[in-house]
């Protein structure tokens, strides 16, 4: 997401955006915490739109940059190998800083440098934002794939494991697969398999790539093993065995 697309449909995100808007007018250092994919970097860019962005683990580059800029965004502060040296460099060079970190991050020097600290809750606590993000990502997918196919939300459960990161990936893949052609699907499987083949058991080892989606789709559509065995032209015991063989994927 760019600096103007932070979603504020939920009360927690609206409050976070309100805090960020206030910080745009103040010359204070701030720390934005939260899980991956919650919008920390987006809000940091909103507060300091012209600042250079440096990953905290790029320690030498960070120290060098702090000597030549007036403001900076430091992401993933918890990954810095020496917080004290970073804090000292910020103070010596009088640099305005907005940093991001994971929620659980703590350090004895943090309070010394950051006047304002606020946390962005995960998307599982901001479900109103999820709805708007899905719409936004659907529009991005339609533009990217040049598709007019209506996004099918049937059986679509948002993946919030990595917040907006996992949700966007899920929407993109879902959108792509909705109108994928047979030859494109076969190309995907071929590219997946090409570097994995090599043993004498490969046919058996990779048969689940075909059987599992066929069984899952069939059970979803026909609702029972009896109907599915009939549609697939399989003996019911054969279908049961295939389900048992693939139980780790079903």
TrEMBL record:
GO terms for molecular function, please? ATP binding; DNA binding
Query: Which species is this record about?
Result: Sulfurimonas gotlandica (strain DSM 19862 / JCM 16533 / GD1)
Could you tell me which PROSITE patterns the record lists for this protein? SIGMA54_INTERACT_4 (PS50045)
GO biological process terms, semicolon-separated: regulation of DNA-templated transcription
InterPro entries membership: Homeodomain-like_sf, P-loop_NTPase, Sigma_54_int
Name recorded for this polypeptide: Transcription factor, Homeodomain family
Which residue range or ranges hold the Sigma-54 factor interaction domain? Answer: 85-142
What UniProt keywords are attached to this protein's entry? Answer: DNA-binding, Homeobox
């Amino acid at each position: 997401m760019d600096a103007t697309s932070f979603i504020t449909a939920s009360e927690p995100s609206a409050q976070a955006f309100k805090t960020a808007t206030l910080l745009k007018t103040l010359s204070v250092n701030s720390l934005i915490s939260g899980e991956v994919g919650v919008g920390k970097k987006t809000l940091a860019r909103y507060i300091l739109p012209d600042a250079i962005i440096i990953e905290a683990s790029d320690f030498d580059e960070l120290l060098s940059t702090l000597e030549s800029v007036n403001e900076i965004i430091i992401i993933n502060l918890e990954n810095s190998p020496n917080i004290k040296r970073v804090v000292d460099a910020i103070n010596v060079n009088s640099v305005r800083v907005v940093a991001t970190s994971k929620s659980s991050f703590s350090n004895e020097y943090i309070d010394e440098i950051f006047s304002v600290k606020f946390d962005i809750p995960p998307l599982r606590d901001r479900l109103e934002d999820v709805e708007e993000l899905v719409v936004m990502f659907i529009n991005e997918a339609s533009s990217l794939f040049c598709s007019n196919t209506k996004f099918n939300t049937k059986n679509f459960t948002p993946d919030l494991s990595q917040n907006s990161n996992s949700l966007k990936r899920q929407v993109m893949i879902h959108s792509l697969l909705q109108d994928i052609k047979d030859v494109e699907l076969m190309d995907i499987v071929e590219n997946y398999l090409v570097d994995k083949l090599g043993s004498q058991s490969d046919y058996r080892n990779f048969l689940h790539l075909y059987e599992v989606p066929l069984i899952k789709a069939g059970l979803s559509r026909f609702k029972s093993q009896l109907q599915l065995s009939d549609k697939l032209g399989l003996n019911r015991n054969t279908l049961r065995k295939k389900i048992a063989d693939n139980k780790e994927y079903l």
